[in-house]
C-alpha cells in the first residue's frame, strides 16, 4: 500500500481581489540581423503600472521573424547565440522560401530568418508576477530577438492577475 506524503512545496492561494487584465505595447526599431534587445526594464515598468500583485505576464511579438527569449545579458552569451544561429541557418545559404513572390521590398528573401524563428519557436514567453514585479532569476533578462533585417517592430505584453 502506498503511503500518503505531504507535497514537497508550500502552495499559497490568493483569493482576494478580482482577476484583471491589462495590456500594452513596446515599440522597437531594430538595427541589424540577429540583434538582441534587452526589454526587461520596459516590461517591468509596464507591469508595475498595472498595479497587479500576483499573476502572469505574457510577452509576445506578432512578427514571424522575431523571437522573445529569457536568458543572461552577458556579451559572451550574445556572441555565442548569434554565432549559433548563423551556423544553424546561414544568411547566404539557399532557401526555397527566397524564391517565393514578395510584395514589399522589406519582404525580400529571408528564408534564413524563418528557419531561425522556427527553431527558436519562441514568439512569446510567460513569466510570473509576484509582489507586483516580474518573477525573474538573478541573471535573467527578457530579450527581443530580431532574426531578419532592421525595421520597426512591436512587443505586446498582456498581464493577467489580482491586485492587493
Second CATH tier, the architecture? Sandwich
User: Which topology does CATH recognise?
Assistant: Jelly Rolls
Proportion of beta-strand residues: 25-35%
Report the count of strand segments.
8
State the shape: elongated
CATH superfamily: YjbQ-like
Sheet of most strands: 5 strands, antiparallel
| Share of residues in helices | 10-25%
Structural class estimated from helices and strands = alpha+beta
Count of alpha and pi helical runs = 3
Distance between the termini: 44 Å
Mean pLDDT: 89
The unreliable regions are none
Question: In short, what is this structure?
Answer:
The protein has 3 helices and 8 strands; from the N terminus they run ββαββααββββ.
What do these coordinates show?
The structure is a single chain. This protein has three helices and eight strands. With 164 residues, the protein is an alpha+beta fold. The strands form two sheets. Strands 1-8-3-5-6 form a five-stranded antiparallel β-sheet, with helices on one face. Strands 2-7-4 form a three-stranded antiparallel β-sheet, with helices on both faces.
Amino acid at each position: 500500500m502506498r503511503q500518503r506524503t505531504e507535497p514537497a512545496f508550500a502552495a499559497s492561494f490568493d483569493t482576494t481581489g478580482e482577476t484583471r487584465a491589462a495590456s500594452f505595447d513596446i515599440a522597437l526599431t531594430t538595427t541589424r540581423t540577429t540583434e538582441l534587445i534587452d526589454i526587461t526594464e520596459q516590461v517591468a515598468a509596464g507591469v508595475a503600472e498595472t498595479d497587479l500583485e500576483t499573476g502572469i505576464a505574457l510577452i509576445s511579438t506578432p512578427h514571424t521573424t522575431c523571437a522573445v527569449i529569457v536568458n543572461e545579458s552577458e556579451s559572451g552569451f550574445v556572441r555565442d547565440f548569434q554565432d549559433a544561429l548563423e551556423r544553424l541557418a546561414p544568411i547566404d545559404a539557399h532557401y526555397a522560401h527566397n524564391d517565393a513572390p514578395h510584395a514589399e521590398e522589406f519582404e525580400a528573401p529571408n528564408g534564413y530568418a524563418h528557419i531561425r524563428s522556427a527553431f527558436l519557436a519562441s514568439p512569446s514567453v510567460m513569466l510570473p508576477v509576484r509582489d507586483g514585479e516580474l518573477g525573474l532569476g538573478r541573471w535573467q533578462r527578457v530579450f527581443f530577438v530580431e532574426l531578419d533585417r532592421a525595421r520597426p517592430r512591436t512587443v505586446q505584453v498582456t498581464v493577467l492577475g489580482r491586485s492587493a
